[in-house]
Fold:
Amino acid sequence: MATAARYHLDETNLERQRLLGKVLNPFTRTFLAEAGLSSAARCLDVGCGIGETTRLLASVAPNAECVGLEKDAALLAAARRQSDEPRVCFQEGDATQLPFGDHSFDFVFARYLMMHLPEPGDAIREMLRVVRKGGTVMLIEPDFSFHATHPPSWAYERLPELLRALLPDPFIGRKLDHLLRQAGAGEIHLDAVARIEQGSSDVRRCWRLTVESMGPAMLAKNILTLEELAAVVAELRRVEDDINSVLLCNPNVCAWART
Ligand SMILES: C[S@@+](CC[C@H](N)C(=O)[O-])C[C@H]1O[C@@H](n2cnc3c(N)ncnc32)[C@H](O)[C@@H]1O
Structure:
């Protein structure tokens, strides 16, 4: 029986997911091209949020019909507002119980979803169920065990511990190969990238917005007090505003399996 998952981020501020797309899309595009997405006819994006990833799939696969699946109705509405191509559409649903028939897509994709699920294997098995024989399932997830700034920042040093206290698995990137195998996938390709940010602050701004969006859940779970949360956010904002600081970002892992 699939587990009902609780999502711990308050996504009311849509700028967070927009920035996530801006930061992650360049290397995601490279992985998608390497995995042969361009020839796909039917693609599914699981946990699509405001549709940044769904629109990216559509741009790499110029003739494909791309479906974004999301369980948050407000994010779905935003995704629909921002997408005017008829071949891109969005549907409400849960990753652990996909509302699609067996073998109905050529390419099934999820980015930054598995770390939020208590039982990611349930969602991966569903992705493998709905992909056709000879199709591709691709996962992109972070390993948030590492961040480094120069000059040093105590808030960035605390991030792994805070994320571990809140999210089901913020270090899941390293496990994708095993999770895919356990779900029955064969022929798995693995790759990883790590970025360094200097002279711009998109990643740092995204982190500050992410911690703000996790604030209510961290308070409810007594991970931080209100004062501690305010101090972490203020420190993240200080680093965001420091144009001379450098952020060596967490690695992101991409795993794709041919079925
Ligand atoms: C961090 S966002 C990533 C959005 C997009 N994939 C991207 O990379 O830009 C994760 C999304 O997964 C959605 N989500 C979380 N649990 C879900 C579930 N069980 N089924 C479907 N969507 C889910 C959240 O609502 C959120 O929009």
Observations:
- The longest helix spans residues 15-34.
- The chain has a mean pLDDT of 95.
- Residues 5, 7, 11, 17, 20-21, 47-49, 52-53, 70-72, 75, 94-96, 111-113, 116 surround S-adenosylmethionine (CB under 6 Å).
- The radius of gyration is 18 Å.
